[in-house]
Design brief:
Helix content: 40-55%
Order of helices and strands: EHEHEHEHEHEEHEHEHHHHHH
Radius of gyration: 20 Å
Number of domains: 2
CATH superfamily of the largest domain: NAD(P)-binding Rossmann-like Domain
Largest sheet: 6 strands, parallel
CATH architecture of the largest domain: 3-Layer(aba) Sandwich
CATH class of the largest domain: Alpha Beta
Bound molecules: NADP nicotinamide-adenine-dinucleotide phosphate
Length: about 290
């Protein structure tokens, strides 16, 4: 396999991932809808492509890190999409958080071009992407994963094969379902403590040192108290993930009040002007009540 890798989508996650690949010595081409995000990577040695197809041409492996199903569809299969430009037997990897239904469809579309496909959503956030410390949840053919392993190792500290395509999307949605519900309930708990006039640091220590003190509650709780909303994970993307989780649950006959209620918190926060901020900002509309 050649060392040519393309990265499509240079947001909070994709930008860090591309930088790790450059650092590991891969020959990296990058593409992003908004070209400004590619400039620094160009200075670091990446080839800046003008379209997904331009980035993908000649690459052994193409990795997408995009907002949602619809954007993934456009970038892989739309006009100037990556799939049609890829060489037979090359590997397409989508690391975005997507539905199991879409990644299964995408795997079938890739096969029509003779392209091998892996879904590889991640746990970890902006900082882990920048440090090459993501955990990749992989669905697809184990032999394809073996061929792609050096690329995953450049971007992550753990690679977990979960089964066929669709398995990793399901686990990732379950993961973010729990994260989203925790963040939404945490925002309400913090708003309650503040409105009752408690010493907020003392009260939060009870929560973070006790049974509810998950990494999510500790990390996002700190940012809520500090009013630090520089984005690690944007509000609308958590709304998207909770919507996808609610749909996956509905597909197996579970109408999830939890996923729907948590999603509503993120949808309302975005509507209240917090859409460009970190998920910690969902506490702000509650502070204003
Ligand atoms: P982000 O910073 O908002 O980046 C989103 C990317 O999608 C950008 O490259 C953006 O391009 C592109 N995009 C959006 N709409 C588009 C369109 N219509 N056409 C073409 N490109 C479009 O988000 P992120 O945090 O990097 O997340 C990327 C994916 O990883 C998402 O699926 C997210 O759920 C998942 N994820 C995020 C985290 C996290 O903590 N941040 C963790 C795990 C998984 P522009 O720059 O032009 O807008």
């Amino acid at each position: 396999m050649n060392r040519k890798v393309a990265v499509l989508g240079l947001g909070l996650m994709g930008g860090g991932m591309a930088r790790q690949l450059l650092g590991a010595g891969f020959d990296v081409a990058v593409w992003n809808r908004s070209p400004d995000k590619a400039a620094a990577l160009g200075e670091a040695g990446a080839r800046i492509a003008t379209t997904p197809a331009d980035a993908a041409a000649g690459a052994a492996i193409v990795i997408a890190m995009l907002a949602d199903d619809s954007v993934s569809d456009t970038v892989w299969t739309g006009a100037h999409g990556a799939l049609a430009a890829m060489s037979p037997d090359s590997i397409a990897i989508d690391s975005s958080t997507l539905t199991d239904i879409w990644v299964t469809t995408l795997a079938d579309l890739a096969a029509k071009y003779g392209v091998r496909f892996l879904e590889a959503p991640v746990t970890g956030s902006r900082d882990q992407a920048a440090q090459g410390a993501l955990r990749f949840l992989v669905g697809g053919d184990p032999a394809t994963l073996a061929d792609a392993r050096p690329v995953f190792e450049a971007m992550g500290s753990a690679i977990v094969h979960l089964g066929p395509v669709g398995s990793a999307a399901t686990v990732k949605l379950a993961n973010n379902f729990l994260c989203g519900v925790q963040a939404a309930s945490l925002a309400e708990a913090i708003a309650l403590l503040e409105k009752r006039g408690l010493d907020i640091e003392q009260a939060m220590a009870i929560l973070t040192d006790g049974a509810p003190g998950s990494p999510m509650v500790k990390g996002v709780g700190r940012r809520m108290l500090d009013r630090d909303y520089a984005p690690h994970f944007l509000v609308p993307l958590m709304a998207k993930d909770l919507g996808y989780a609610a749909q996956a649950l509905a597909d197996v006959g579970i109408i999830s009040a939890m996923a729907q209620a948590a999603r509503q918190c993120f949808v309302e926060a975005a509507a209240a002007g917090e859409g460009h901020r970190d998920i910690a900002a969902i506490v702000e509309p509650l502070r204003k009540i």
